[in-house]
């Protein structure tokens, strides 16, 4: 697996809950490292790196600058899928849809994960 240029690592309330949520959406979770006391997890989508999740309390210890930062983010992440319609049909009952729109003819469905992170799903384009 090649490393992405930027690798998001999200602070989450409960790593097990977050991993279970993303696995229902078709992600695969891998351990982030060999330390049994560290709950860092790497999430793949369609065999490709997508993001990492780390329990907020552990992430705050790792980077104390985050000590007062709430879980969740201002902004959004995008997930490009091979078949937008089929994927959205599959996940719709599993997520809290917050917006559906189209930009430049490209459909986007936004939902939140258990910690309030916003994910926008769209059709993967050639070369992505």
Automatic annotation (TrEMBL):
Pfam families: Glyoxalase (PF00903)
Gene3D superfamilies (UniProt xref): 2,3-Dihydroxybiphenyl 1,2-Dioxygenase, domain 1
Limits of the VOC domain: 3-124
PROSITE patterns: VOC (PS51819)
Source species, domain of life: Bacteria
Matching InterPro entries: Glyas_Bleomycin-R_OHBP_Dase, Glyas_Fos-R_dOase_dom, VOC_core
Name the record gives this protein: VOC domain-containing protein
Natural source organism: Streptomyces alboflavus
Organism lineage string: Bacteria, Bacillati, Actinomycetota, Actinomycetes, Kitasatosporales
């Amino acid at each position: 697996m090649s490393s992405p240029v930027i690798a998001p690592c999200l602070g989450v309330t409960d790593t097990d809950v977050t991993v279970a949520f993303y696995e229902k959406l078709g992600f695969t979770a891998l351990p982030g490292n060999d330390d049994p006391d560290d709950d860092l997890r790497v999430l793949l989508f369609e065999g490709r790196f997508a993001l990492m999740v780390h329990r907020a309390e552990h992430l705050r210890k790792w980077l104390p600058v985050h000590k007062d930062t709430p879980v969740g983010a201002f902004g959004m992440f995008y997930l490009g899928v091979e078949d937008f319609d089929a994927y959205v049909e599959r996940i719709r009952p599993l997520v809290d849809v917050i917006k559906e729109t189209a930009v430049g003819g490209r459909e986007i469905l936004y939902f939140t994960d258990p910690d309030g992170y916003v994910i926008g799903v769209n059709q993967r384009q050639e070369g992505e």
